[in-house]
Amino acid sequence: MTERIVERRAEATRDTKETQITVVMDLDGAGTAHIDTPVPFFNHMLDAFTRHSLLDMRVEAEGDVDVDDHHTVEDIGIVMGSVLREALGTKAGIGRFGQALVPMDEALVLCALDISGRGQAFFEVPFQTQTIGGFDTQLVKEFFLAFARAAGITLHLRLVVGENSHHVAEACFKACGRALRQAVELDSRVTGIPSTKGSL
């Protein structure tokens, strides 16, 4: 008997007056990232997220960064979340929950998530500076809010300790990547949808 391999891959494009974004995601990848946005620090964060999630992901984006980076960062979160949701398909056989406690030098960030079908994020990560280089630290929260809502996941991010804003932000993206890796991985012992309701 030959087992059928279901491809867990999706892509989407969002084209508005503010942004033009394409995301391709493969849940069963090796952490290969191809990130091209006009926001250099955000590129670094998405690269870290991809490598630690073991997804393969391509992100190509243009946006009105002459205004500021907000629309581009938030819309990338929306498209990434939508693509993740589509790639998960029926969600049969997944681990569903994931958690990670990730250090980045003096910073320590906790991420816990549930592929619940209910898109919500609880972000308790204060930053001690308003910017990292030219990147507005408020946009870290905006990205994760947009991503969680569009993906239909319940996401918690908490700063345990940390001072350096770059370290704190990077720990957030790495922790989310590690937690997501656990949640989307297929578990041979899971039969069907991992929910008492029978759906997520």
TrEMBL record:
<dbReference type="InterPro" id="IPR038494">
    <property type="entry name" value="IGPD_sf"/>
</dbReference>
<dbReference type="GO" id="GO:0005737">
    <property type="term" value="C:cytoplasm"/>
</dbReference>
<dbReference type="InterPro" id="IPR020568">
    <property type="entry name" value="Ribosomal_Su5_D2-typ_SF"/>
</dbReference>
<protein>
    <recommendedName>
        <fullName>Imidazoleglycerol-phosphate dehydratase</fullName>
        <ecNumber>4.2.1.19</ecNumber>
    </recommendedName>
</protein>
<dbReference type="InterPro" id="IPR020565">
    <property type="entry name" value="ImidazoleglycerP_deHydtase_CS"/>
</dbReference>
<dbReference type="GO" id="GO:0000105">
    <property type="term" value="P:L-histidine biosynthetic process"/>
</dbReference>
<keyword id="KW-0028">Amino-acid biosynthesis</keyword>
<dbReference type="GO" id="GO:0004424">
    <property type="term" value="F:imidazoleglycerol-phosphate dehydratase activity"/>
</dbReference>
<dbReference type="InterPro" id="IPR000807">
    <property type="entry name" value="ImidazoleglycerolP_deHydtase"/>
</dbReference>
<comment type="similarity">
    <text>Belongs to the imidazoleglycerol-phosphate dehydratase family.</text>
</comment>
<keyword id="KW-0963">Cytoplasm</keyword>
<keyword id="KW-0368">Histidine biosynthesis</keyword>
<comment type="pathway">
    <text>Amino-acid biosynthesis; L-histidine biosynthesis; L-histidine from 5-phospho-alpha-D-ribose 1-diphosphate: step 6/9.</text>
</comment>
<dbReference type="Pfam" id="PF00475">
    <property type="entry name" value="IGPD"/>
</dbReference>
<keyword id="KW-0456">Lyase</keyword>
